[in-house]
Each structure stands twice: as structure tokens, then as C-alpha cells.
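for the writeup, i need someone to sanity check this before i put it in the appendix. the sequnce is what the collaborator sent (i think, or maybe the updated version? ugh). structure was predicted straight from it, no edits. if anything looks off just tell me and ill rerun, i have time this weekend
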Amino acid sequence: MEKKLEESGDLVSTIKCYIQEHLSDTDLNRQQIADEIHINPDYMSHLFHKKTGVSLMSYISEQRINTAKRLLATTMLPLQQIAERVGFSNSSYFHRQFKKTVGITPQQYRTERQL
């Protein structure tokens, strides 16, 4: 049983690394991740949620927004470019998701962080 827990922890780490490396992929999804690490997508999602307390898609969204926040605060990249770098093919969707999650627009976030 101990080995199984250890392996599932390693699997979650592998999933998290894969997500970080492929965050800019607009089609990043559980099937793509499961195919890459050779595991059933349902089992992978279940295990990820069990180990982290967060659904896989919520984790991906959270990572995208956190990376966007970092880029907004530390670079002068255009918003469209930031949206693309964090996996949003549509900048208006990026704006909506960012505002829904953070409470302010990406531009407002940038302005507040660069004072």
C-alpha cells in the first residue's frame, strides 16, 4: 500500500510538470495528458483530485491565471501575447476568465502591480 501511495504522488508530480511545460497549448486537456503519461484519463483525473483536492481542469485554469498574473506584473508583453502564452487562443475569453477569477481586468491588474 505504501508503494502505491508513493507512486500516485509521483504521478501527480508528473502531471503537474506536464501541465507547466504545456500551459501554452490551447488544447491542453486531460486526454492529452493521459495519453502522454500512458494512463486512463478517468483514473488520472480521480487520482489527481484525490491527492490535490482540486479537479484537473481547475488546476490547469489556476496555473494559467497565476502565470498570467506573473507576466502582467513583471513584463510589458501585450495582453494578447500573454493570453497566448498561458493557453488562451481568444484574448476576450482570457479577459473574461481573468476578471472572473481575479476580480479585475488584466490591464487593471498590471496597472496596480506596476505602481
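The chain has a mean pLDDT of 92. DSSP finds seven helices and no strands in the chain.
thx in advance!!
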